[in-house]
UniProtKB/TrEMBL annotation:
Biological classification of the source: Eukaryota, Metazoa, Chordata, Craniata, Vertebrata
Localization terms from the record: Cell junction, Desmosome; Cell membrane; Cytoplasm
Gene name, Swiss-Prot/TrEMBL: Perp_1
Gene Ontology biological-process entries: apoptotic process; cell-cell adhesion
Alphabetized Pfam families for the sequence: PMP22_Claudin
The protein's name in its UniProt record: p53 apoptosis effector related to PMP-22
Length: 188
């Protein structure tokens, strides 16, 4: 990307595209019912960020909202704030890369906001399993599952993209094509 510059049509939209993928992963984590699941038969426990469901022997699922617990509200609120900041960063990145003249300080600000977003997301992702396993009675063998994994993937993407957005202005001259090429050829 640095070699061809951000004006190179295929490379210009890579960072906003990765942010968009992070937003999709965040939506999956928020809506997914697989934050915690039973690992072995009979499957008796399933939980999301919002509720915990149990199935008694041969019966139907009964669900309890986690919003009745202070830690449930805290985990949901912090993860949701991180997700909203990620969506804001995605919108700002679209705006920043759509303008012909890049504002590199603006891009560095997006990187800083991504780090703040990652902090909120990680706080929610740490509060949830710690308090869930101590406050809610679990039977059988349980595991934190695919939707929880999507939440961590979103947080890791926020951190990595934050580094990219913060470091991109360091290569401003190379990106804009203001540096003369160096040739390592010497004539005989």
């Amino acid at each position: 990307m640095v070699k061809y510059g951000l004006d190179y049509t295929r490379c210009r939209w890579i960072l906003p595209l990765l942010l968009g993928i992070g937003v999709i992963f965040g939506i999956i984590a928020l809506a997914g019912r697989g934050w915690l699941e039973s690992q072995t038969l009979p499957y008796v426990h399933q939980a999301s960020l919002w509720e915990s469901c149990r199935r008694l022997e041969g019966g139907e699922w009964t669900c309890e909202s986690l919003m009745g617990y202070a830690w449930g509200r805290a985990a949901a609120a912090t993860y949701l704030v991180g997700f909203i900041l990620l969506v804001i960063c995605f919108a700002l990145a679209i705006i920043a890369f759509a303008i012909d003249t890049l504002r590199f300080n603006f891009i560095r600000g997006i990187g800083g906001l991504l780090f703040v977003s990652a902090v909120f997301s990680i706080m929610g992702l740490v509060i949830y399993p710690v308090k869930f396993s101590t406050e809610i009675e679990m039977t059988g063998i349980n595991m934190f599952s695919w939707a929880y994994g999507f939440g961590w993937t979103t947080a890791i993407m926020e951190i990595c993209l934050g580094f990219f957005f913060c470091c991109l202005p360091n290569y401003e001259d190379q990106i804009l094509g203001n540096v003369k090429p160096t040739y390592f050829y010497s004539s005989p």
